[in-house]
Hints:
By secondary structure, the chain is mainly alpha-helical.
Amino acid sequence: MLTVGVLPALFVGLIAAVVSWITHAEHGALSSLVATVLTLAFFTGGLRALRFVLGGGAGLALAGALVVYIGQLIALTAAFLALRQMSWVESIPFALTAITVTITWQIGAITAFSRSRIAVGGPTHE
């Protein structure tokens, strides 16, 4: 799930940085790159939490995955609110890049998850 989520999201983030450089100069490109790195970091960390959630009871898997996803979005929003006070951060490129990278990541993660064979609720073999 990690590779299928990260690679397309990274590609979209880099395209967003180029577009932001054209439309908002260097600060726009930097804002897009920071948004890409933060978004990928939060969603990569969320996969660890998701692994823990899926190792538990099958009845709580969907609710746990939703809590992880909402937590990732809250953390990303908090990072944006903290960083937007900086003079070099362009809000529009940062926000649009974070949104597009998030959507791309989710498409990749859902695609990978739907193709995988993960037993939910069974005994863990660690």
